[in-house]
Amino acid sequence: MLNLTKQSLSADSEVLSLNSNSVFADNKKSHPCECEDLGRIILSSRDSRAYGSRMTGKKSGSRMTFLKAAQSGRSMIEMLGVLAIIGVLSVGGIAGYSKAMMQYKINKTVDQISQIVGNIRTLYSTQKTYVGLDSWEESGKKIIKKSHLVPDEMWDTAGTSLENAFGGSVGISVSGKKDGTDNKAFAIELNSLPEEACMELSTYDWGSGSSSGLIALNINDASARVFNYYAGCNGDNKTACPQGSTSSVPMSVSIAADACASGDDNHIALKFY
Q: Treating both helix axes as pointing N-terminal to C-terminal, what angle do 195-203 and 61-123 enclose, rounded to 10 degrees?
């Protein structure tokens, strides 16, 4: 019985095989173009595999090496070009940043002086003199600190001395309005200023009316640390006074150019009442 079943299955398989072949033959006859296209596709895929195997062989090694070298060379040239552009932009950026920082510090110094002058004049508005206002003395520092006459940022880390935006020292001291002894004026001194800052601060329009209270402005004259009203207004080109006989406030650019020294060690003193 088992043998008969196997034989019947084998016979059925042969019939199925014959039917499949006949169907394939019929399809080939009815659609010859599709079969040819299928053959070409199969041949193309075989050729592609064969070509790929040849490209990965030893014979194609030199060609592949040349292509890789060409690509590497082009990438190196492009990289050098990018680095050159970055270098040019960096130089320009540094120069622009330095210029911007210089102007920022100058503007900051102007704001600080204006704030100090306003605070001092407000504090001493009911006083006849500015006696005791001296940042070089401990008693004067106490007045300045407790009254908050200067911005907190101007004190050094130890809180013992004042500094301007350029890192130089700042001094506030009592002075004379009409002579050297009446104590009716005060001076603000800025030290270690760059040449550009000296030029801009000395030619800045601080005002000459009663609202500003500016009496005189002096550049790089150590003898005029605390100068009286008439100092420098009789022929000294380093000092500018409101409607002065030699130079008025604001100081002219030509006089400032002669007075401001090159480098970063310029001194400016401004006198107010």
A: 40
**Whose CA is closest to 121, among 111, 109, 130, 112?**
130
- Residue pair 232/269 in contact by the 8 Å Cβ criterion: no
Distances, alpha carbon 150 to alpha carbons 32, 135, 162, 262, in Å: 101, 11, 9, 29
**pLDDT at residue 229 is higher than 60:** no
Mean pLDDT (the chain) is 74
User: Class assignment of domain 89-272?
Assistant: alpha beta
Q: Is the per-residue pLDDT at 136 higher than 60?
A: yes
Strands (E), 77-184: 162-163, 169-175
Residue 239 contacts residue 227 (beta carbons within 8 Å)? yes
User: Is-contact 246 233, C-beta < 8 A?
Assistant: yes
Peptide bond into 250 cis (omega under 30): yes
pLDDT reported for residue 65: 55
Q: Tell me the two tokens of residue 1.
A: 């019985």
